Amino acid sequence: MKNLSDLATIKKLLTRHGFQFSKALGQNFLIDPSVCPRMAQECGVNAQSGVLEIGPGFGVLTQELAARAKKVVAVELDHRLPAVLAETLEGFENVTVLNEDVLKLDLPALIREQFPDMPVFVCANLPYYITSPVIMKLLEERLPVQSITVMVQKEAAVRICAQPGKRQCGAVSVAVQYYAQPDLLFDVPRDSFYPAPNVDSAVIRLTVRDSPPIALGNAREGDFFRLIRAAFGQRRKTILNALSGGLQMEKACLTKCLEQSKIPTNARAEQLTMEQFGTLCRTLFQEEP
Ligand code: SAM
Question: Which end of the chain is more exposed for a tag (fewer CB within 10 A), N or C?
């Protein structure tokens, strides 16, 4: 098995395949030998389960996943990489590489076809330029996956894991936590990558919930997410002003709904708990039976 954390091995591969890193595709490859085994361990895969990896690069994490899982499907956009992966993953019979854009894939169909009757986990060192769209696609499509363990920018990790009601909470924290329970697992400094990016990273695990943590009554999920976007759209404004602008609603009507939901009109979005967002959503959007 090739040691893909070894810089000399990476440089030989670069030369042999005439490969140059693409900044546009977020290509910073892991070279700290402790990170991939830890990610593969903590993502929860075992010999009975399948793993979906996004962006295998040269395959440093793929090797660790393949050693633990029944099957790995690795989706890589860069058309130059399948040839490299054929070499670096030689001997692993349980890996399928798909040369596709993860954002354009029909993931429910992929999971049905590739992982019949297997618990499925997602594990990836994500390209940072598409962190939020990828995470939200995985969650919103309600894929039958147990958890999503991903490396993201440190700042994004902190934001995603911030509890609603706490200062660092944003729209993405509430949206992610509607679908999953987040845990910040460990930090990964920038010099763990080649080439080194300008920012530090962290690994988070999102354990997918069986059902949302709040009840919306007969209000629609779309309305809940519209409410969250409006509330955090102008996070320095009071909730009353942010919502009247973002939802285009009369202040008098909003004031009544906020009071009914026991939320002070001068609160800021970051001060509201998940339960308060749920109550407000029902008060604003629930239809009379
Ligand atoms: N897993 C490798 C590692 O840890 O060293 C590489 C991670 S690198 C940060 C991100 C990888 O995602 C690159 O290989 C890049 O080509 C790939 N990628 C970028 N955009 C993608 C997309 N839309 N769909 C699938 N893969 C993508």
Answer: C
Q: Is the CB of 127 under 6 A from ligand 1?
A: yes
What spacing in Å lies between the alpha carbon of 57 and ligand 1's midpoint? 5
- Domain(s) labelled CATH 1.10.8.100 in the chain stretch across 221-284
pLDDT digits (tens, 9 = 90+) for 219-245: 999 999 999 999 999 888 999 999 999
**Would you list the DSSP string of 56-89?**
-TTSHHHHHHHHHSSEEEEE---TTHHHHHHHHT
Where do you find CATH 3.40.50.150 in the chain?
7-208
60 pocket-lining for ligand 1 (C-beta < 6 Å): yes
Q: Pick from 54, 63, 194 the residue to mutate for probing ligand 1's pocket: most ligand atoms within 8 Å of its CB.
A: 54
Class of the domain covering 221-284 = mainly alpha
Q: What is the pLDDT of residues 174-229, one digit of tens each?
A: 999 999 999 999 999 999 999 999 999 999 999 999 999 999 999 999 999 999 99
| Positive or negative: CA dihedral 196, 199, 203, 206 | negative
Binding site membership of 25 for ligand 1 (Cβ less than 6 Å): yes
Rounded to the nearest angstrom, the distance between the alpha carbon of 69 and the centre of ligand 1 is: 20
Q: Residue 45 is encoded by which pair of tokens?
A: 């895969």
Q: Which fold has domain 7-208?
A: Rossmann fold (3.40.50)
